[in-house]
């Protein structure tokens, strides 16, 4: 075994004991052919302050974990990971991309906010540098050549839950839909209504909150919640993430104790601890659960918990996969890759053996993947998103 493989094996052994490390180790021939490959730069775009910072941290952690388990290399090349703050507007996002491009990055990754993703589309396409987005994925991002996403398309989160709730809700039930006024909400609502049945009388007209801020106050949503509950719903379907999710649920629970359904971002990550008892029983649809029992997830989740002392999120998983697809694409380009070669190679990598399960890019450059139902339950003193079952394959 080469020196490089010994290091990788020891890293995985430390995370996993003696289980599952062999498949992650390449051959001696592979190591010899990549030993002389030069360094490359990858640009990481995430929010470094504000209500989405925790999501940005997860994205950074997931990508870094892949590098840790692969000797800080992608496709055999030593990696310098450069970071930039996406902020929360198209203007700040463009500044982040422009700064990274000036430093000669081979590829970009990250991006949490859908408004930022839409805002940077043209600058990325014009620069002809691939962006492997690991979170933001509005359905309006069509006909792109250099933008790939390892997360999802937002309407799929609504579709997965709409299909499930259509069959679960009693015939005399009624759902109130409450969404923030942001770029992604129309996608989620459209997907939910199309799968549930747009003309189904059990779906109330959506209520859009007056605020799309990522840092809401303690009464930001009260009026909108009151308006939605005036229709006497038996359940609520909503779409929030980060700090906004915490405040929304707290304010909702002051008026409503019934069942809550949502895309999984509502209860994903550190927000779950902040919600505490208010989150119990919430059911969500997501493309990942740390409970998934497959070899890739056992490697990923164990190593992630060991390094960061927390359970991995879908944000971290999608970023880990962004590193994984870059690793494979760069490997395909040979010894001296340029951004255009990497972009073409991304279309040739086929199936990805991911912690979420096997997936592959579809024609719009987004994943074809499974979606899962989860429920917030108490695991000892800790709140946990417990895997219930598989919902659908979408994409």
Automatic annotation (TrEMBL):
InterPro entries with a match to the protein in the record: BCAA_transport, Leu-bd, Peripla_BP_I, TAT_signal
Ligase keyword on record: no
The keyword Protease is annotated on this UniProt entry: no
Pfam families to which the protein is assigned, alphabetical: Peripla_BP_6
Sequence ranges assigned to domain Leucine-binding protein in this UniProt record: 39-381
Keywords from the named record: Signal
Segments forming a coiled coil: none
Signal peptide: 1-24
Taxonomic superkingdom: Bacteria
Family, similarity comment: Belongs to the leucine-binding protein family.
Name assigned to this protein: ABC transporter substrate-binding protein
